[in-house]
């Protein structure tokens, strides 16, 4: 003991920063894509048109019953087969995350949509707005606002999950930390540092969630 | 203008409307009253197709509400509706509440929509509140905004579904005043309400409902002075003695 070398962290900061950028970028894009696709799934599920709801419900239940790491693998091998050409680790991981997270976001948005009173829809209908206009201008903005804290919480989980992309050889923050840890032989220092970085980001985000909840409660 | 012919409606096994018929002529004000659960709100919601009916037909200005071929969206844009719980959009300012459907449905320009909205807010005495959000207004003010929102669509008729039932007593009159003025200007109105003072003052006819049926449908004077059915007599004695 006593021979910790934290200099290795400083020396590898630019390399780690690149990894962190990839993690954050992948998180950001997956949240956007996941919420958009998830919202469409929620609308499908609530549509009242049973074949559409059935497809959406099946999709959601299927994806929620499979480990994420398997989904990442699937898309890594499946997408090139479908498209006929490889799209690289990043895009296949992004598609996997969007498809996977959409299943969770759809359940959140479904609860959000149901939290908007039916009278709001009636008000929109009675002034001649179409179904899509009612969703776009009346229901979804309220559903989204009611669900922001849970959407952010899901985003935090997603950020942690991006560490799984090592399976498709992407160099996210976790992978970058591992590479430094192994090549420099500084496992303890690097893994402590990685934990601190994940903790700081996730904890800050969860404080933000708490702040949002308090603001919404007043 | 509004023709309701033998409509029946069920929620599962429960029949909420039983063979209801009535007519509302242009410029007429008709009050629908009756004990709670009598189907009056459901009836009024059927008029603009918010609630589907299983039997009978409804037409508004010759357009069949109950026909699948009718463009309900277009029809609804011409019939204003005011709700018990106001149903203003909480995430939009008062002005935006009034402009949304004008721009999206009537395709008015922003300037036209704002001009129309402001003139109506003036009329209901709330022009100073145009940039506030519904949550910052009292119940009475919200309901006046909701009436203005409906009027902004230049409706050919207005439906009111218990517009004062959710209000504190001291706010009821400000809403009724707006409705009285509207009636005097010749608006065709169908009003579900327990406000018998309003009914006596402006209604041409009263429809009395109980257990999903239209029990009486008569001119206002006759309804109040000599109701035919025992149920109406009983209802009036309860509601007028307080």
Which shape of chain A, going by the Cα principal axes? globular
Measured by residues with Cβ under 8 Å of the partner chain's Cβ, the largest interface is: A-B, 18 and 28 residues
What is the average per-residue confidence, as pLDDT of chain A, rounded to a whole number?
91
Radius of gyration of chain A: 21 Å
Shape of chain B: globular
State the helical fraction of chain B. 25-40%
Instruction: Give the topology string of chain B: H per helix, E per strand.
Output: EEEHEEHEHHHEHEHEEHH
Low-confidence stretches of chain A: none
Number of helices in the DSSP assignment of chain A: 9
Taking the sheet with the most strands of chain A, its summary is: none
Give an account of the 3D structure.
By secondary structure, chain A is an all-alpha fold. Chain A contains nine helices and no strands. Chain B is of the alpha/beta class. Chain B contains nine helices and ten strands. In chain B, the strands form two sheets. In chain B, strands 6-7-8-3-9-10 form a six-stranded mixed sheet, sandwiched between helices. In chain B, strands 2-1-4-5 form a four-stranded antiparallel sheet, with helices on one face. In chain B, α5 packs parallel to α6 (169-184). Chain B starts with a strand and ends with a helix. At the A-B interface, α6 and α7 of A face α2, β6, α3 and α5 of B.
């Amino acid at each position: 003991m006593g021979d910790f070398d934290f200099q290795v962290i400083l020396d590898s900061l630019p390399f780690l920063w690149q990894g962190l950028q990839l993690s954050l970028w992948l998180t950001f894009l997956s949240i956007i894509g996941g919420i958009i696709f998830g919202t469409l799934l929620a609308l499908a599920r609530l549509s009242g048109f049973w074949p559409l709801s059935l497809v959406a419900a099946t999709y959601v239940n299927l994806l929620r019953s499979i480990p994420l790491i398997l989904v990442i693998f699937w898309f890594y091998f499946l997408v090139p087969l479908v498209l006929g050409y490889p799209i690289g680790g990043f895009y296949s991981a992004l598609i996997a995350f969007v498809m996977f997270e959409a299943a969770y976001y759809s359940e959140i948005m479904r609860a959000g949509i149901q939290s908007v009173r039916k009278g709001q829809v009636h008000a929109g209908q009675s002034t001649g707005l179409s179904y899509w206009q009612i969703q776009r201008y009346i229901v979804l903005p309220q559903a989204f606002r009611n669900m922001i804290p849970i959407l952010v919480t899901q985003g935090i989980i997603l950020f942690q999950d991006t560490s799984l992309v090592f399976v498709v050889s992407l160099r996210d923050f976790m992978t970058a930390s591992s590479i430094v840890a192994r090549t420099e032989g500084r496992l303890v220092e690097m893994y402590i540092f990685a934990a601190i970085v994940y903790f700081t980001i996730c904890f800050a985000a969860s404080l933000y969630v708490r702040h949002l909840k308090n603001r919404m409660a007043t | 203008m509004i023709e309701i012919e033998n409509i029946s409606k069920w929620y599962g096994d429960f029949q909420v409307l039983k063979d209801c018929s009535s007519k509302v002529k242009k410029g007429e004000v008709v009050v629908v009253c009756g004990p709670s659960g009598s189907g009056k709100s459901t009836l009024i919601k059927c008029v603009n197709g918010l609630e589907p009916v299983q039997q009978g037909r409804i037409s508004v200005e010759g357009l069949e509400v109950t026909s699948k071929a009718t463009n309900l969206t277009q029809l609804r844009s011409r019939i204003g509706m005011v709700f018990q719980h106001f149903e203003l959009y909480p995430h939009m300012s008062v002005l935006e509440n009034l402009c949304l459907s004008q721009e999206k449905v009537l395709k008015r320009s922003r300037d036209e929509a704002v001009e129309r909205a402001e003139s109506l807010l003036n009329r209901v005495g709330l022009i100073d509140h145009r940039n506030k959000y519904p949550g910052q207004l009292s119940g009475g003010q919200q309901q006046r905004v909701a009436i203005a929102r409906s009027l902004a669509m230049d409706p050919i008729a207005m439906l009111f579904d218990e517009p004062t039932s959710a209000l504190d007593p001291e706010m009821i009159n400000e809403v009724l005043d707006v409705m009285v003025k509207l009636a005097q200007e010749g608006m065709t109105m169908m009003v579900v309400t327990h406000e018998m003072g309003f009914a006596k003052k402006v209604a041409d006819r009263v429809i009395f409902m109980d257990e999903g049926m239209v029990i009486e449908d008569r001119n206002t004077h006759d309804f109040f002075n000599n109701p035919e059915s025992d149920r109406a007599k009983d209802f009036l004695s309860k509601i007028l003695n307080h």
